[in-house]
Design brief:
single chain; 251 residues; alpha/beta; four-stranded parallel beta sheet; two-stranded antiparallel sheet; 6 strands; 16% strand
């Protein structure tokens, strides 16, 4: 299948997605979530900055917002479930990811200060799921990169909500590595940044986190400017969070 046909398929899967907004005007420059006026980051990202300076990801790039109650937020839950609908969700996620990396990979690498990733990893499951992580199973056949395995430490609580250095450990030395770290959903970002810290402690020179969906629950937000902007941020394949008008290759 050609890239033009994959893009056409991705357009069909992208209905209801929302492209992340530019940093500023109440939008956190790290995760692109809502931030209070006058603050440099959202509450969670500011806490991470104080907790683990020098160990955080060099860039965080959400592919889209994942708005509570939408079909996209259901995909991000369903793909790792036992539901028969998981196959449809996985196929849609895979198409979006491949097209996004093909068209915007250089944006991600440049933002993280790397020419290209040397390794790929996924954030371990907070539920302690045994076996291969569903996200790794979904993308591993399509990314020809060595895997940087991460293991959750056994004494950590299930579904932790705060960044903790030492929550995960790397299965190998990563001295000088440039790592693409993939996660499905970013709510507080604690798990993803804990995983980034583990990669940095293992020697990674740079880490870029690619998130399928930056979680947003409009019913719990009180940021009117952010919500108004969010309603207008329709998804476009020629835009990404870190380079708003990337030229598409001919494919």
């Amino acid at each position: 299948m050609t890239w033009s046909r994959l893009r056409a398929a991705a357009v069909g899967e992208a209905a209801g997605l929302r492209v992340p907004m530019p940093a500023g005007l109440g939008c956190c420059p790290v995760c692109r979530g809502p931030a209070r006026a006058g603050y440099p980051r959202c509450f969670s990202c500011n806490l991470h900055h104080r907790t683990a300076p020098g160990l955080l990801a060099d860039a965080v790039v959400p592919l889209s917002y994942s708005i509570a109650g939408t079909s996209y937020s259901r995909w991000l839950r369903m793909y790792k479930s036992a539901s028969t609908d998981r196959h449809e969700a996985r196929a849609a996620m895979r198409t979006l990811l491949l097209v996004f990396l093909h068209d915007h990979g250089t944006c991600l690498w440049a933002t993280a200060g790397m020419t290209a990733p040397s390794h790929v990893a996924v954030v371990p499951s907070g539920a302690g799921r045994p076996g291969v992580h569903p996200l790794r199973a979904l993308i591993e056949p399509y990314l020809a990169l060595p895997w940087a395995g991460l293991t959750a430490c056994g004494d950590d609580p299930v579904q932790p909500r705060e960044l903790r250095v030492g929550r995960y450990r790397s299965d190998a030395s990563l001295r000088g590595a440039n790592v693409l770290l993939v996660d499905d959903t970013w709510a507080s970002g604690a798990s993803a940044q804990s995983a980034a810290a583990a990669l940095k402690l293992a020697g990674a020179a740079s880490v870029v986190i690619l998130v399928f969906g930056r979680h947003v629950n409009p019913e719990r937000l009180h940021f009117d400017t952010f919500l108004r902007s969010l309603s207008k941020s329709c998804f476009r394949l020629d835009r990404c969070a870190v380079h708003t008008m990337t030229a598409l290759s001919s494919g």
